[in-house]
Structure formats: C-alpha cells, structure tokens
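in:
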C-alpha cells in the first residue's frame, strides 16, 4: 500500500547543517596517485596530456607520500570554470590510477573528506588532525600549461 503524504508536508528531509553555496568553491585540486614505476609512467603520460588540453597549474611530483596523502602523487589545481571539461576527461582517461578530486572552500579537512570525489580506489586520508578545519582564501592559480589540443 502506498502511504499518502499529508498536504503541506515537505518532501525534503531535514538537513543537519546549513547548505553551502556553490560560490564557496574557490578552486579545485585533483591528486593523481601512483605507486609502482609502471604507474608513475602512466601518471607522466596523463600529466603530459593534461598540459596539452587544459588551463591548469600542474604541481610538482611527490615520489613519497606527503601531508594527508597515503601514496606518491602530483596535484593539478584548476579554477571552477575548467571543472566541466577537466573532470569528465579525467574520469575517462585516468588509466586505472586513483584520483582524489576535491573543491577548495576554505575548509581543508572537509574538502579532503566530506566534499571529496574518488575515482578508482578510495585511499586513506592520513594525519587528518593536521588539516585545518578552516583557512583563508585560496590563492588565484596562474596556469603553467599552454593547451594546444581540444579535450
């Protein structure tokens, strides 16, 4: 039997905390992880393809785990206007590597956990207590790529 919803009742469940506006997203980070020498070669190829296609800031290589990241990786920082093109491309072209994609809202701990999207295996975020709950605005990213190929 289908239960009738009383007139005037809300179909929206109660929200425990305030809704965040999308405008709080200042930028995004994609962390591309690798572990083996073979995976590092794949990560290098993906990085080169990203540089050809997107206006982003490619971060330096970390061949050992750093900060909250459980595996070696590099970071790709990008502005919200690049998200609609870059995120789907990365979904299709990560070549089996694990990727953490998160917004930067000024809440680093929540951005790396509650707001994060994982592509591939979900990894542990380590030393969570070291990530501040809040911080000032993100710096504006100046891309270090010169895209010449359409995604």
């Amino acid at each position: 039997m289908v239960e009738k919803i009383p007139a005037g009742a809300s179909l929206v469940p109660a929200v425990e905390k305030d809704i965040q506006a999308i405008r709080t997203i200042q930028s995004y980070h994609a962390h591309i992880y690798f572990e083996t020498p073979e995976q590092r070669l794949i990560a290098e190829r993906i990085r080169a393809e990203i540089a050809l296609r997107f206006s982003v800031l490619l971060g330096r290589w970390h061949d050992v785990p750093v900060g909250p990241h459980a595996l070696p990786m590099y970071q790709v920082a990008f502005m919200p206007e690049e998200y609609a093109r870059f995120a789907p491309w990365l979904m299709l072209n990560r070549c089996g590597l694990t990727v953490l994609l998160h917004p930067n809202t000024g809440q680093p701990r929540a951005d790396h956990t509650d707001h994060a999207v994982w592509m591939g295996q979900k990894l542990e975020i380590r030393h969570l207590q070291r990530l501040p709950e809040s911080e000032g605005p993100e710096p504006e990213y100046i891309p270090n790529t010169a895209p010449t190929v359409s995604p």
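note: The chain is about 25% helix and 20% strand.
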